[in-house]
Design brief:
By secondary structure, this protein is an alpha+beta fold. The chain is built from three helices and five strands. This is DUF2634 domain-containing protein.
């Protein structure tokens, strides 16, 4: 199985802050699909208004990690048949914006667990 260099939602290469190494993923397509799913706000797509993570719920739960993880896990489970788990690794706040970084685990085609780095940026502009 080939390994790919992980990228974030902006296409930047992800470097592990603890080791300085590139973060690698087994399935770049799964990482891209995860970032698209997390980065799309529910109702954002006029042709598929039910698709997307409710970013307002993410904002409301930034201080309640268990609830936020449960919200994200419920959403990803509804989108991906091979979803196993999601773990919040970091939340970066910058004014009205927050970036939630995750380790998301899926089952690959051989039934082995593989973890991809994913994340979403949310803001509360227009919500108050």
């Amino acid at each position: 199985m080939s390994m790919d260099i992980a990228t974030d939602e902006t296409g930047d290469v992800i470097i592990d802050p603890e080791t300085g190494d590139f973060v690698m993923v087994d399935d770049a397509d799964q990482a891209v699909a995860t970032n698209i799913a997390l980065g799309t706000n529910e109702g954002e797509l006029s042709w598929n208004p039910d698709f997307g993570l409710n970013h307002l719920h993410v904002i409301e739960n930034l201080d309640d990690i268990p609830s936020l993880e449960a919200e994200i896990e419920d959403y990803l489970e509804s989108q991906f048949d091979n979803f196993v788990s999601a773990e919040i690794k970091d939340i970066k706040r910058n004014g009205r914006t927050a970036t939630v970084d995750l380790a998301v685990t899926y089952l690959d085609d051989s039934g082995e667990e593989t973890t991809v780095t994913a994340g979403t940026e949310v803001d509360n502009i227009g919500t108050d």
